Every structure is written in C-alpha cells, then in structure tokens.
C-alpha cells in the first residue's frame, strides 16, 4: 500500500468516526433534552393545576410567585407555560380570564411578552403578538400598536391579529384606515383578522369601510356578507356606483346574502352594467334575492352576449318560485343561445 493510499484510508476512517460520534452526540443531546422538557412540562402542569384548584386568592398568588421564580430567565419555560394555557382552548381562557390576568402579572408572563415585543428580531415580535392575542393579555394593546410601522409584513399581520383577538376596535380601525395603502396582506389574511375580531363586527365595518381604499372596501364587504348584517345594507347600495368591478361584485353578493326584497331592484339594475362580470354576479345574486319581479330582467339576460351571464340568469330564473314556467316560455324564443341556456339549466335541475 502506498503512502497516499494509507493516508486516504486514515482520512476516511477519521471522517466516518467523526460522523458516527456526531450522531451519537446528537442522539444523547436529544434524549436528555426530551427528558428535561418532559420534566419541565410536568412541573408547569402541576403548578398551573394547583393555581386553579385553590380557592383563596393569597394561596393562588403564592403559586403564581413560585411560577415566576421557576420560569424566570428561561425562554423555554415561559413558552411552554403559555402553550399549556393556549392548549386548554378559548372557552377556558375566556371563562377564567380574570384569574389568568392576575396570573400573567404575578408570574411575569405579561412582562416577558412585552419585553419580547422590543426584540430586534421580527419573528420574535410576531410570536409575542400572537401569544398576547391568544392569551387575551389586555392592557398590552398600546405596546402591540407600537409595532405598526414595522417593515416586516408578518409582524404587521400579527399586530392586527392580536388587536382583533383583544377586541381593540379603536386601534384596529385606525390602522386599517390610516395605513390601508401600506398594508400588504392577502385577502384571506384580512378575512381571518375580521373573523376573529372579539367585538361588534358591524361597528368594525362601519368604522373602517368609508375611510379605506377600494381594495380593502371589497374585502370588508365580502367578509361582512357572511354575517348578514342588515345595518350595512346602505353601504352596499352606495358602493354599487363604484368604478371598481370587484367592489361592485362584492356589494351585489352582500346584498344577495341579506335576502331582503327591498334590495332586489338594486341588483336587477346591475344586470345592465357595462362589465359582464358584474352582470353575471347580479344574475347569480338574484338566485337568493329574486322574486317574480326579476323574471323579465333575467329573461332578457338569457340572451346576453356572455355565456356566464346567460347561464347565471337561466339558473336563477329556474330556482326562483314560479320561474320554471317563465323559463319554459323562453324555449319558444328564436334566440338559439337563450334556448340552449334554459335547456341546459332545466336538464340539470330535473
């Protein structure tokens, strides 16, 4: 064996040995870390259970102080403690909110999270916002609000999420109104924020809709449609005159969800819009809102130049009580497209 081959053999043995030792070290570390985490979790669970089982406030405060001493200066213990509370679910947090707020104060959880909001790392700030919202740590809203000028979109999202969970109508609407053009969140993200808002949703919409841009208006109206808030009908009618297609479509759908005959004429009027997408939405909306007063207008739209308008008009006409008889009369129409639209819908509904 040459010297070169001998050296290569020893190098290979050394590399293999190093790799094996690294695996063993990692396994040993993971094993002992798991044992340590399990022990910490057990201790925290026992102390948390003890806190809620005690009746006297003095005894509870004593447990809270012990928790403070146990978790102090340990990020892992604080995070595990918060997760234990969150895992109990929203009903538990809401039903025991007063006791939990006292626990957060004495155990140092509130101070821990507020301090984390000041971190220079965006993901730490975002996580702190999430925990403050999930735990319903009130009186922390002002500290959360200070992060609204963050350049990190994930932080902005979690700021809004936390304020929504805390039901902070004033700060949430101020951000959506004043910073709407600087908020670059997806449609689903904004819908989520609105959905989890712990406050009167109609008040949130009223305080936000008029001052926001068309993009956010459309999202707000789409979100409000699911809650069938009758008080918002006047806003939906007003923005039917918008030049923004998506906003007009959102208003049509929201009016349709209200199922109030008073708004039928407004939706019928949108069947004459210059944009086919708006006409299609109006034809679809009359499926829920329409009455016999819609028959003539829908009958005319069955001859529309766009297939989706024809299809939606025919479908709505057939679904409105008494509409099938009217649709059968259209079968005698000389317009081939109108006949085909009605025939297709009747075939599917039979």
UniProtKB/TrEMBL annotation:
The keyword Isomerase does not apply. It comes from the Bacteria. It comes from Paenibacillus planticolens. Pfam families: HEAT_2. The chain crosses the membrane at residues 6-32. The keyword Membrane applies. This is HEAT repeat domain-containing protein. SUPFAM superfamilies: ARM repeat (SSF48371). Keywords: Membrane, Transmembrane, Transmembrane helix.
């Amino acid at each position: 064996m040459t010297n070169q081959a001998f050296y290569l053999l020893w190098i290979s043995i050394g590399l293999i040995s190093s790799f094996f030792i690294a695996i063993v070290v990692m396994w040993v570390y993971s094993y002992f870390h798991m044992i340590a985490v399990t022990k910490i979790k057990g201790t925290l669970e026992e102390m948390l259970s003890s806190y809620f089982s005690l009746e006297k406030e003095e005894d509870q405060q004593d447990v809270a102080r012990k928790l403070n001493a146990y978790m102090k200066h340990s990020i892992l213990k604080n995070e595990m403690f918060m997760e234990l509370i969150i895992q109990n679910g929203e009903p538990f947090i809401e039903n025991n909110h007063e006791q939990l707020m006292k626990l957060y104060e004495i155990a140092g959880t509130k101070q821990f999270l507020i301090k984390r909001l000041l971190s220079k790392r965006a993901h730490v700030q975002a996580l702190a916002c999430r925990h403050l919202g999930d735990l319903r740590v009130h009186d922390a809203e002002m500290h959360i609000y200070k992060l609204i000028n963050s350049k990190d979109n994930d932080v902005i999202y979690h700021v809004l999420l936390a304020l929504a969970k805390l039901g902070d109508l004033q700060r949430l609407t101020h951000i959506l109104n004043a910073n709407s053009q600087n908020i670059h969140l997806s449609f689903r993200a904004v819908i989520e924020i609105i959905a989890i808002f712990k406050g009167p949703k109609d008040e949130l919409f009223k305080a936000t809709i008029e001052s926001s841009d068309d993009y956010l208006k459309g999202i707000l109206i789409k979100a409000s449609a699911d809650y069938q808030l009758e008080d918002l009908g006047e806003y939906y009618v007003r923005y039917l005159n918008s030049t923004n297609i998506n906003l007009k479509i959102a208003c049509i759908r929201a009016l349709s969800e209200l199922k109030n005959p008073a708004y039928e004429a407004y939706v019928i009027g949108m069947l004459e819009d210059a944009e086919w997408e708006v006409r299609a939405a109006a034809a679809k909306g009359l499926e829920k809102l329409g009455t016999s007063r819609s028959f003539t207008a829908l009958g005319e739209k069955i001859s529309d130049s766009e297939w989706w308008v024809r299809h939606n008009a025919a479908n709505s006409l057939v679904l409105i009580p008494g509409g099938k008889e009217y649709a059968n009369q259209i079968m005698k129409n000389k317009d081939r497209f109108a006949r085909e639209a009605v025939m297709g819908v009747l075939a599917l509904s039979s």
